[in-house]
């Protein structure tokens, strides 16, 4: 299902990831649940009375990956790397500038709103902020039942029953269905968000920093919940986060993004034991270790992330890379498979 | 530290210890009067800070750590908040007894604060050079020119490249990391004795966070400032603090030197926190695969109004029994210089070794 | 540190408020001016609704013998030059004023909400055009606008209501639009899109209910403003026509000629207008304070 005409900017992932992993039970599907090829999103910057375009924000620049059934792809990076935009674009909440998105093999990139609507059943999203992702004026039972209202013709009683079951699935009581969001804690609200995402039995859920706004002890609860659901329902996740430890825990494969591009893409064990890209190394070096007895050599990478309005030429990381050479400033490194299942975009690897 | 349990040292020894302490907080109580009732945000917290040392206050939302920081600086909104009891002695002077004019003299001068959101803590219509100069002009009576020169030096000190140029820029022209560096420059401009950093890196990227923490440590060494670091991130605590206080529902539940705390947590909450964090493979001491499931702390933080007499953590604690549900445990020294408020800390200690 | 009485502080903050009566007492203690405003407004509404029961006389009946009777006796507040009872005319005038105030405010708000919601939600050219139109409407003074409307539409109760409603639209639209703009970006709206909801449905079900809170404050304030405008229009002869009793017209008919000889004809309608406008403003201020999230404890 991958064209020969795929742009050379980023190598599409051909393998079905399911088979490599021993966490999955059952046969892996031939078709990946989600396949993204060369996804690009440039936001025009408009100024002046006549709204002339004076530049672009190169938010996402040729991103490709696949996610199989029951699998989690972690998308990791810092601010400005474009991971949130990738999530929004896959959901078609933002329209991609270029590239293809395939759900279960169907190309959905250019479908109109009403044509795309049935696909929304398979693809859901959980947001970061538990406080603003629920309408404060609606009862939580209605919020969770809304997807059912739109996509399924159920009687009121049937819908209520489904919602009650969802509530119990995520660890809340059905009696809480008639409460308003402000009566719940942050962690509980996030569970409601999960329940809403589950309502239509989707195949893939995009988590846009779903635990970042929660307290540490609550994060563990929600992470465990997500993993239980994955195991029970063969759910796939696109888990977007800046927290490496959480991503490592929940993902099977991980893609590291920097300024709109994927710089490293491999399974989790390899990424954390044998990272190849200097940015991945820098990220790992920067994460504070919650154990004072472990002393590491800290090589703190200097400088700030460049602006996505004017990304550096060549390799976008060269301005901060301790190993940068002359050719890094000029040539754009291609995401290549340097060893089995391990892709890196770096001239020096 | 709980005064009652400290063994009485010699007077000379005591005098020396007191001289070493730049900040002493005694039984601080800050309450909020709200529609929902009386919220005891900080209920009897005491600690001391040695000169040039780093103390971390760790806890999650609602534990009272930020309110503690604001109480020390007397920056609480009154109403609804009020410091109802206790003493905060900065080099012997009780800050809670000063009037507002005297307190303003101290804020920014002898004790200053860095906040979490660098975006909203800087005035968007003033250049950053000017903002740093403000404190210098106010407290050190410098002229505008001298203050600006010193401000530029501070920018250099905090690692902002091209400081003279940057001093003329506005906050929106800087990145998040640079804004936080500016905040630190502002806070340290008058060389205060104590710097309170309230979640200084939570809003920053992890690579920038590493830079900022490195910067704070470096400045602390050079300027001899004592730092109170408030955070929820145990990783940050492990890498930067010398001494740690764990807070829960407005009270201290554990306190120790950082190595001792991580090696032998005595309170179930501390233990639960440490176990619920996913750790990168290379950070785990024991080799082997990661746990499939993180160890959760069930339940949620209690509402701070109408707290019962019992141990506030009991509803979520795996070890809670009737004793715990009847009475809040006393805060005692369980091991040398390791304090905890738990009826069953010996059992917790055993589990750590087992 | 001074000894603090926790209970007194808590009472002041509004803890321990039980039930409706408790809430009522708390409101009165905390917002005394608002309570006064509420009482004035309530009096106004009750008077308007129960005019038949309250008024001893019919406001339209003339009585040449009682012409310009001073207050006292049968005519509690005196009578005008046609012998009509001033008290009765004030009481029935309340009905007219209420109709105008509520009607104009409601109409202005409904149109303003629709315009503001569509403008903010759909943006683009529509928004630009509508905004410029609102700018134009707002640049004309309220009274002049109302005058022009009234003059061109001709005098009648309905036309007066329309004339007063229209200048209200830009104010409402502005507020609703700015709320809509910020709500449009909220995650729960994105979530609704992610489910596949149509934009119109999102605007009505998710965005609209969340924009209404500040509207309540605005509407309350506008009630008083509407009455003032109606009075001004009546004063200029363009308000509610005869024979409807209108406070503004009562003033306009009497002011020049009778202010010295029969001051009660001017004083009492004046007091009525002032009291109602004062009341709505006080009440509106209190409501705004209550709804202000920063005041929430």
Work out the number of β strands of chain A: 12
Q: Give the class of chain B from helix and strand content and strand pairing.
A: alpha/beta
> How would you sum up the major sheet of chain B?
8 strands, mixed
SSE order of chain B, one letter for each helix or strand: HEEEHEEHEHHHHHEHEHEEHHHEEH
Secondary-structure element series of chain A: EEEHEEHEHHHEHEHEEHHEE
Given as residue ranges, the uncertain stretches of chain A (5+ residues, pLDDT < 50) are: 1-28
Kindly report how far apart the N and C termini of chain A lie. 29 Å
How are the strands of the largest sheet of chain B arranged? 6-7-8-3-9-10-12-11
Number of helices of chain A: 9
From the N-terminal CA to the C-terminal CA of chain B, the straight-line distance is 29 Å
The count of β-strands of chain B is: 12
Average the pLDDT over all residues of chain A and give the rounded result.
Answer: 85
Annotation keywords:
heterotrimer; A: 349 residues; alpha/beta; 8-stranded mixed sheet; 4-stranded antiparallel sheet; 9 helices; 12 strands; disordered N terminus; C: 297 residues; mainly alpha; 14 helices; 73% helix
Overview of the structural elements:
The complex is a heterotrimer of chains A (349), B (354) and C (297). Chain A is α/β, with parallel strands linked by helices and 349 residues long. Chain A has nine helices and twelve strands. Chain A has helices at 83-90, 113-116, 140-151, 156-169, 186-198, 216-233, 244-250, 268-273, 278-286; strands at residues 34-47, 52-67, 72-76, 98-103, 106-107, 123-126, 204-208, 236-241, 253-258, 261-267, 336-339, 342-344. In chain A, strand 1 (34-47) and strand 2 form a beta hairpin. In chain A, helix 3 (140-151) crosses helix 4 (156-169). The longest helix of chain A is centred in the middle third of the chain and has 18 residues, at 216-233. Chain A starts with 33 loop residues before the first strand and ends in a 5-residue tail after the last strand. Chain B is α/β, with parallel strands linked by helices and 354 residues long. The longest helix of chain B is centred in the middle third of the chain and has 18 residues, at 206-223. Chain B starts with 10 loop residues before the first helix and ends with a helix. In chain B, 48% of the residues are buried. Chain C contains 14 helices and no strands. In chain C, helix 3 crosses helix 14 and helix 5 runs parallel beside helix 14. The longest helix of chain C has 37 residues, at 86-122. The mean pLDDT of chain C is 83. The chains are: A alpha/beta (349), B alpha/beta (354), C mainly alpha (297). Chains A and B meet through helix 5, helix 6, helix 7, helix 8 and helix 9 of A and helix 8, helix 9, helix 10, helix 11 and helix 12 of B.
């Amino acid at each position: 299902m991958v064209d020969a005409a795929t742009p050379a900017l980023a190598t599409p992932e051909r393998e079905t990831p399911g088979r490599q992993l021993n966490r999955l039970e059952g046969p892996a599907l031939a078709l990946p649940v989600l396949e993204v090829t060369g996804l690009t999103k440039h936001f025009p910057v408009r100024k002046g009375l006549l709204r002339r375009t004076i530049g672009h924000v190169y938010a996402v620049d040729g991103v490709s990956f696949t996610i199989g059934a029951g699998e989690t792809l972690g998308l990791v990076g810092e601010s400005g790397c474009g991971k949130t935009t990738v999530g929004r674009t896959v959901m078609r909440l933002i329209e991609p500038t270029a590239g293809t998105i395939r759900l279960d093999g169907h190309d959905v990139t250019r479908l109109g709103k009403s044509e795309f609507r049935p696909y929304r059943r398979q693809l859901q999203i959980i947001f970061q902020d538990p406080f603003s992702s629920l309408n404060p004026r609606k009862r939580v039972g209605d919020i969770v039942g809304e997807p059912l209202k739109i996509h399924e013709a159920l009687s009121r009683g049937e819908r209520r029953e489904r919602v009650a079951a969802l509530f119990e699935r995520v660890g809340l009581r059905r009696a809480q269905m008639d409460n308003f969001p402000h009566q719940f804690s942050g962690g509980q609200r996030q569970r409601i968000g999960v329940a809403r995402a589950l309502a239509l039995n989707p195949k893939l859920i995009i988590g846009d920093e779903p635990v970042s706004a929660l307290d540490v002890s609550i994060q563990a609860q929600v992470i465990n919940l997500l993993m239980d659901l994955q195991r029970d329902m063969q759910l796939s996740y696109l888990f977007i986060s800046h927290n490496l430890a959480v991503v490592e825990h929940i993902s099977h494969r991980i893609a590291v993004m920097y300024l709109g591009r994927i710089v490293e893409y491999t399974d989790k064990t390899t990424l954390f034991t044998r990272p190849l890209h200097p940015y991945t190394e820098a990220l790992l070096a920067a994460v504070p270790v919650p154990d004072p007895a472990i002393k590491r050599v800290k090589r703190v990478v200097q400088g700030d992330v460049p602006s996505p309005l004017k990304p550096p030429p060549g390799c976008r990381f060269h301005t901060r890379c301790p190993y940068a050479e002359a050719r890094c400033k000029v040539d754009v490194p291609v995401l290549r498979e340097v060893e089995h299942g391990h892709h890196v975009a770096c001239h020096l690897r | 530290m709980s005064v009652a349990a400290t063994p009485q040292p010699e007077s000379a020894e005591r005098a020396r210890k007191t001289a070493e302490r730049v900040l002493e907080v005694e039984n601080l109580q800050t309450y909020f009067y709200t529609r929902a009732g009386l919220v005891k945000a900080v209920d009897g917290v005491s600690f001391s800070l040695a000169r040039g040392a780093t103390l971390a206050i760790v806890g999650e939302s609602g534990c009272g750590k930020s309110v503690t920081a604001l109480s020390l600086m007397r920056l609480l909104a009154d109403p609804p908040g009020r410091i109802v009891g206790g003493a905060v002695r900065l080099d012997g002077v009780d800050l809670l007894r000063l009037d507002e004019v005297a307190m303003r003299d101290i804020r920014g001068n002898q004790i200053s604060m860095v906040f979490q959101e660098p975006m909203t803590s800087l005035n968007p219509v003033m250049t950053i050079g000017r903002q740093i100069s403000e404190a210098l002009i106010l407290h050190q009576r410098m002229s505008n020119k001298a203050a600006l020169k010193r401000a530029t030096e501070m920018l250099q000190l905090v690692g902002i490249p091209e400081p003279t140029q940057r001093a003329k820029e506005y906050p929106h022209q800087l990145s998040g990391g640079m804004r936080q560096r500016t905040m630190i420059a502002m806070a340290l401009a008058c060389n205060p004795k104590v710097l309170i950093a309230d979640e200084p890196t939570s809003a920053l990227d992890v690579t920038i966070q590493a830079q900022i923490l490195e910067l704070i440590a470096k400045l602390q060494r050079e300027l001899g400032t004592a730092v109170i670091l408030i955070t929820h991130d145990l990783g940050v605590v492990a890498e930067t603090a010398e001494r740690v206080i764990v807070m829960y529902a407005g009270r201290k539940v554990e306190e120790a030197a950082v190595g001792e705390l991580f090696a032998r947590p005595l309170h179930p909450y501390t233990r639960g926190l440490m176990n619920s964090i996913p750790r990168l493979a290379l950070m785990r001491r024991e080799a082997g695969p990661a746990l499939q499931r993180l160890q959760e702390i069930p339940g949620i933080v209690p509402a701070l109004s109408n707290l019962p007499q019992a141990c506030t953590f009991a509803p979520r604690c795996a070890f809670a029994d009737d004793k715990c549900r009847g009475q809040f445990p006393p805060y005692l020294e369980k091991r040398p210089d390791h304090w905890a408020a738990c009826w069953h800390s010996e059992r917790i200690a055993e589990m750590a070794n087992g | 540190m001074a000894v603090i009485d926790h209970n007194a502080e808590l009472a002041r903050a509004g803890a321990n408020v039980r039930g409706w009566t408790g809430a009522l007492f708390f409101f009165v203690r905390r917002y005394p001016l608002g309570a006064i405003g509420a009482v004035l407004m309530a009096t106004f509404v009750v008077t308007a609704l129960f005019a038949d029961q309250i008024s001893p006389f019919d406001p339209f009946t003339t009585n040449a013998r009682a012409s310009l009777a001073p207050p006292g006796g049968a005519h509690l507040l005196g009578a005008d030059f046609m012998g009509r009872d001033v008290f009765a005319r004030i009481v029935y005038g309340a009905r007219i004023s209420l109709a105008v105030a509520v009607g104009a405010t409601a109409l202005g708000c409904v149109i303003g909400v629709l315009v503001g919601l569509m403008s903010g939600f759909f943006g683009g050219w529509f928004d630009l055009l509508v905004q410029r139109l609102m700018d134009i409407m707002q640049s004309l003074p309220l009274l002049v606008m109302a005058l022009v409307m009234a003059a061109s539409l001709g005098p009648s109760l309905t036309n007066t209501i329309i004339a007063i409603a229209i200048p209200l639209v830009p104010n409402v639209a502005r507020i609703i639009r700015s709320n809509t703009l910020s709500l449009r970006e909220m995650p729960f709206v994105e979530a609704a899109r992610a489910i596949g909801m149509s934009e119109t449905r999102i605007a009505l079900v998710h965005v609209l209910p969340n924009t209404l809170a500040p509207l309540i404050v605005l509407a309350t304030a506008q009630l008083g403003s509407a009455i003032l405008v109606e009075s001004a229009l009546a004063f200029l002869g363009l308000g509610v026509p005869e024979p409807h009793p209108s406070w503004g017209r009562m003033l306009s008919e009497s002011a020049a000629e009778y202010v010295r000889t029969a001051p009660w004809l001017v004083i009492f309608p004046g007091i009525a207008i002032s009291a109602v406008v004062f009341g709505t403003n006080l009440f509106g201020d209190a409501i705004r304070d209550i709804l202000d999230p920063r005041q929430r404890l």
